[in-house]
Amino acid sequence: MEMLKIVAFKLGDEEYGLDIDQVQSIERIEHITRVPNAPSYVKGVINLRGKVNPIIDLRSKLNLGVAQYTENTRVIIVKYEDIELGLIVDQTSDVIDIDPKAIEIISSDNFNADYFRGIAKVDGRLVILIKLAELMQTPTN
Amino acid sequence: MDLSNYLEMFIEESKDHLQAINDELLKLETDPNNTAIINEIFRSAHTLKGMAGSMGFDDLASLTHQMENVLDLLRNSKLVITTEIMDVIFKCVDFIEKMVDSVEQGGDGKENVVDIVQQLEQIQNPSSAHHADVLDASLEVAVAAELVIDEYQYSVINEARKTGNQVFQITVTLDERCVMKSIRAYMVFQIAEELGEIIQTHPTVEQIEEDNFGDSFSLLLLSQREIKEIQTQLANVSEVKEVIVSEQIHQEMVLGKEVDTQTQITQAQDKEDSADSKKKQRSKSIRVDIDKLDHLMNLFSELIIDRGRLEQIARKSELSELTETVEHMTRISTDLQDLVLNMRMVPVEQVFNRFPRLVRDLAKELNKKVQLVMEGAETELDRTVIDEIGDPLVHLLRNALDHGLESAEERKASNKNEEGTILLKAYHGGNHVFIEVIDDGKGINREKVLSKAIERGVISSEEAKSLSDQQIYALIFSSGFSTADKISDISGRGVGLDVVKTKIESLGGVITIDSTPGQGSIFHIQLPLTLSIINSMLVRVEDETYAIPFSSIVEITMVSQDIVSTLHGQRVIQFRGQVVPLVYLNEVFHVPSSETEFNEQQHYVIIVRKGTKTVGLVVDSVLGQQEVVLKSLGGFLDNLYAISGATILGNGEVALIIDSNQFIK
Predict the structure, then answer these.
(1) Where Phosphohistidine occurs, residue numbers (chain B) (predicted)?
(2) Could you list the residue range(s) of the whole structural domain that residue B388 is in?
(3) Cβ pair B648:A50 closer than 8 A
(4) Interface residues on A facing B, Cβ-Cβ cutoff 8 A
């Protein structure tokens, strides 16, 4: 059985994960240029080695409240289809192997399931897997 | 043989040839008796056929072959050119274009060509039944020999014969005890290939490879060798029982006109040789993949960013050695920039090329007589602009044909030449390229435009009174506007011209109209030379830096708070006798205010222009001029209000580029 490789990161106390194939790199947070009149969760754009990449605040996109940026704050650069995007997360943890069978589909209604693929249980940790395609729907403004 | 390496070359060259055919056909239409033109077309068609054949696009090859036949008859004056024939040939070229496009898109280049082939055949022989008979007969003969020869192969044979080849039909019978027949057959093929060219096998190669045949198979071989030699060579393969080689005279397959064809093909070849030598002298250039150029451009733009950074460091450090080196580098990189930009420049010819054909077809459809004159096709523009400019120009040409030019009768009645003229002109001027579409039609009807605009609610009747002619003409660019009483297929759906305007403005260009009633109209387009590196003014609003393209800036001025007045809630200033509305960037962009000391008294105002309207952008300070590399914000953030892109500054930060057009309604 092929194992899924997942990049795990934290938003507050919760752990989330992204498929490693979709992750381009992990960057420290640097100067962000604000983009006027963009949706509020779009923090702005950064210069990533000569490319201009939009950055979104994952907390505010997922309605998880605001957090101060700290030493541990990271930007995960993801790529889906042709769009590259940076996601601000509180902290990156590690890369974990997950047995696809260990992923539980979210069924609960009181959970905003649109953005999530399921929950993986690894050594007692609960990792919420993010569905990038939904997350990267172009903002309607 | 793996042909995919050649595919790109094939597509490029086919397109060149198609373009040449199209051009020459148009010339031929005006000068039907010029055999030199037909020869030119014939040559291109012939090369095309050869290429298609060798690449294995049989449909393409056979269609071209049919077309060639018709051209051949024309060339020998056996047929007189009529409009019907021209139409069929044009249609045929369209088909070929479609096929090549399909090949380019990774398709198989197949199209349903039965109809067009029939039409071509009909032209070749008005009593087409007769011709078909001859063809059938020849096929029957071939079938009898178990080997069906199609039109294309047939022509290959004919040509090969001219170079001293002969056609042999070889039937090989293998020993019935032979275990791996396909392998023996393969060996036979190998030897045969050394001796000449295999043009046909029966059963097919695939069937033979799959062992799907009895004890014997046949093949047609083109070779210069002796019959005996072939026989002994092939008989050497072990387990081969019998080899029968017979020379095919193909007398029975010769079509009625073969004698002609032969001589002509040799002629064509001669000419081709001379054309080849001409080509060799002419082309000192190479084809470069456009992606490579884009990549080069991207790399270079990063270099420019670093250059900006170095300049900053040098200025700060005050080390003369460093400053000198950086200055030298700046000079070199400026030259390099010119060079790189130049490499991406392509003549507008690329876009203009397809217009004669388009205008011809349209004129036919509309039953108008028109001559398209093109000037300055060699004018160069950045590829990014070229890619975008085609559609707007098509719109304008259609518009000129449909609305601008009168019908032949009307023209006669108003004492004009029955044939209308559309002039398409391109030329350089400063940092811009100008393209003009000029027609000598009836001009724009000022009153009609006005009444329509009022009726459609584009303007009010009070406003209408104060408008200049220019402003009225500009109304036809507003959306939902169309003065054609009848809606035609060609234009007049009211979507055309406003789309043209939007497109040209999105390219950083400007479009204006001039018109003289009864004498025609001029659509004047101004375009920037390039879209990738732009000269801009960096300004600061609170803590944020923005870039405003030079092309839209008229003037920069200092304004003290007390001359700002309000008109209906809109803040304005009077500037050089004009009332200029102000746009406060910190408000429209919701810039968070910083704690820096307040200077309410003095503001910098950047006066920007769009067409004839101006607006003043209020900023805190002006940082200076800089060449910036335009970068897109990526697919995620598009359609942002008044932001056209971003750039990276010398300090590595991203600055947004303001699209000031959006401030002006």
Answers:
(1) 46
(2) 347-528
(3) yes
(4) 31, 33-38, 42, 44-47, 50-54, 82-85, 136, 138-139, 141
